[in-house]
Amino acid sequence: MFIAIAIVAFGLLIAIHELGHFSMARLFGVQVNEFAFGMGPKIISHKGKETVYSWRLLPFGGFCAMEGEDEDSENPRAFTNKAWWQQTIILVAGAAFNAVAGFIVVAIILATSGGFRSTQITGLAEGFPEGGLQVGDTIVKVDGEAVASYGELSLMLSRNTDGGIFDFVIKRGGKVVDLSGYQFLPRDYPAPGGGTQFRYGIDLKTEPVTAGNVLKYSYYETRQFVRMVKMGLSDLFSGKIAMTEMSGPVGIVAAVDDIAKSSENTTLGLRNLVYFFAFIAVNLAVMNLLPIPALDGGRIVFLLVTVLLEKLFRRKISRKIEGYVHAATFVLLIGVMLFTLVNDVVKLL
Description:
Blueprint: H1 2-27, E1 32-47, E2 52-66, H2 84-111, E3 116-124, E4 138-142, E5 145-146, H3 150-159, E6 165-172, E7 175-183, E8 187-190, E9 196-199, E10 202-207, H4 211-238, H5 249-262, H6 266-288, H7 296-313, H8 319-348
Antiparallel strand pairs: 1-2, 3-10, 4-5, 4-6, 6-7, 8-9
């Protein structure tokens, strides 16, 4: 059941992305020739006034085919004949719809939680080292990254590779205080019920579930998703993680199966699954806006460079050359997708 839900959810994320392009294209009067859910051969299709709506065999993917998107067109309603800012909005809309969808899902999940832990310290464990963090402090940055929730703080603490030496920025009594080179490590502290507990030794303020807090902490959670993608890419290019650790749709489905098996019950499993796909939605948004040809981010870069060249030199990048660059990069992306597919299957086996 969870695997079936995963496949449907993944297809839905792609559909939401393409719906963003479609809705903005319609808003600005661009002719859309086809709106497809899925890839590969058509299973069913319906011709509207000017748009063919199709359902294709493979659920991983989809597209919104706009007139003049990849070639010059004399049609005044062609994508390339619209103002540059309208083209930019249409290209950004796909990622924006994914990000908003992820935010909404997170907000729904957090609205049913018991409260939110901030980064304000309300207590210190017995034996906590003096001369550093104090009760009433609010941690606002860790190693240069803004933190405002327990999740963000926990992520940054887990990323440290410098023996527990951190650069903290805190708010104390209305003033900003730098705690550079501060050692902050978990250790055994006395537990309330007796014995010891291995932890960092700070207690954080819990805020109630209100409409304002739900929106605020949903933003923090979405920001954390973006940060995780950024850190993942940084680790990949720096060599901290190997290419073999990358995953595609098959790996995602396998991860969903793991989430389901590790959940205490079906209700919690569904909740964890929905939360996971909120992360994937934001992941898709960020990845699609990377300045890589064939992705929306790459198309936006070409568009803005063309506008700049026209303003400065009365010249623009040839659509044919741009098409070749996008096509070549698309082949490379397909190669990466095939690599991750084979890698995911090998992991499963």
